[in-house]
Amino acid sequence: MASVLAKLRDLEVRTRPEHPDLTAALGRRWDELPEHVKTPNQMLGRRTAGCEGTHGVFPRCDLACTPCYHSKDANRVRVDGEHTVGEIDAQMGLLRELRGPGQYAQLIGGEVTLLEPDDHAAALQTMIDHGRKPMSMSHGDFDYEYLEALALDPATGKPRFKHLSFAGHFDSMMFGRRGIKAPPDEASLNPHRRAFCEMFQRLEAEHGVTHYLAHNMTVTPGNLGEVAQVIRDCRDMGFRMFSFQPAAFIGNTNRWKHDYREFSTDEVWRQVEAGAGGRLHWNAFQIGDPRCNRTAYGAYCGDRYAALLDEDDPRDAEVLDDFVGAFGGMDFEAPLLAVRLARGVGRNPRALRSGLGWARRFAGRAGGVRALLRSRPRAITYVMHSFMDADKVKPAWELLRRGEMSDEPAIRETQERLQACSYAMAHPESGELVPACAQHSVLDPAENLRLTEELPLVELPMASG
């Protein structure tokens, strides 16, 4: 009898819209947010606990970028699979404890494909085992043979993953890519972007491993005017997300070649909208602080872009509120979806009514029901992440650690943005989750210096004769 009751309790938990650990984590995150971001469209603490990233696991990279956010010692650290997997296990363990299951986590450091395929696979599996949804962050300069070795079990030749998520970083500020050491412009990288997407399409065709691909791009005065054309050229290649990062003064100062503050984030977003071919309703949703993040969800029906929600329509704001009220942080990829959906609607029946109205409006934005039936919609997300300069982050972080808020406006703003950060990295040794800007600006230099002693590069002997 006791075992039957235990199974029933377990089933009850597994069919909730969101896991109770996630419910608790979302509540904590909402309570921690500064008041200025606790808006009706805020998803941090209501829909997600935030994105996550690894640190100190493989800081080396084999390309040179201007700018480069890595500290000057990053390329003096050996890539070591055992170290990588061990560190990820500890970091993901803390993230699971503090943030619950089902959250998105980036496998990031230097260049992920410098890991051997089996070590890369072990790192991804470790993240999955801790309830994360991993995405490998890469410059995309690798071969199909590497991707296939990552995806397939070497003993059986069968897929060891059903799905892979990758972000490929492509921009003309990156130097050393095979076949194009110094790109003269963004358009010259389009064959490499296409080849990146085609590798994953081939993997799915040959082995059934599905994929989600993001395109990352650092924006400087040197390529700002090319952003719109990059999107026009690449939005049909297979990318599901386009993410843009206006360059910040972080990392190795020897790699700063431009005055990166000659333009505003509004200018970047205007370029993104021009490339997208329609207005991007980033105010419909907010993730963290609007000075840091803009996210626009939508889909293409043929060449027509349709926003998921219209930020000017109060009915769409109501839909969002009803959706969160019903489903909260529900993982739509987890098992028992039908039952969890039913329980979600049961706790907020308004979601069903308002959702039907939203469906009619979205169909109208996409050109009508016939257009939707004629051309299957392709979901694409546009994102802009504005990182902060190290000279502001360092004093702001030091004051926050002491529990003090600055009276100096620029430092105060930086503190507010750090408090609302949606992208954190775990430190199991202290039990802390650290905002990415603080990690890169304050902690990375000492961490990478220590790693040069723990994982020194092995010098190869000179060839004789």
| Class from secondary-structure proportions | alpha/beta
The biggest beta sheet reads: 11 strands, mixed
Task: Using the 3D structure, state the CATH architecture.
Answer: Alpha-Beta Barrel
Rg: 23 Å
Tell me the fraction of residues in β-strands, as a range.
15-25%
Q: End-to-end span in angstroms?
A: 79 Å
Q: Strand order of the main beta sheet, please?
A: 10-9-11-8-7-5-4-3-1-12-13
State the helical fraction. Answer: 40-55%
What's the CATH class label? Answer: Alpha Beta
Order of helices and strands: HHEEHEHEHEEHEHEHEEHHHHEHHEEH
Average the pLDDT over all residues and give the rounded result. Answer: 93
Description:
With 465 residues, this protein is α/β, with parallel strands linked by helices. The protein has a single domain (45-313, 376-454), classed as Alpha-Beta Barrel (TIM Barrel), CATH 3.20.20. 42% of the residues lie in helices and 15% in strands. It has 15 helices and 13 strands. It has an 11-stranded mixed β-sheet with strand order 10-9-11-8-7-5-4-3-1-12-13. A hairpin with a 4-residue loop joins β12 and β13. The protein is globular and about 60 Å long. The termini are far apart. The model is unreliable at 460-465 (pLDDT under 50).
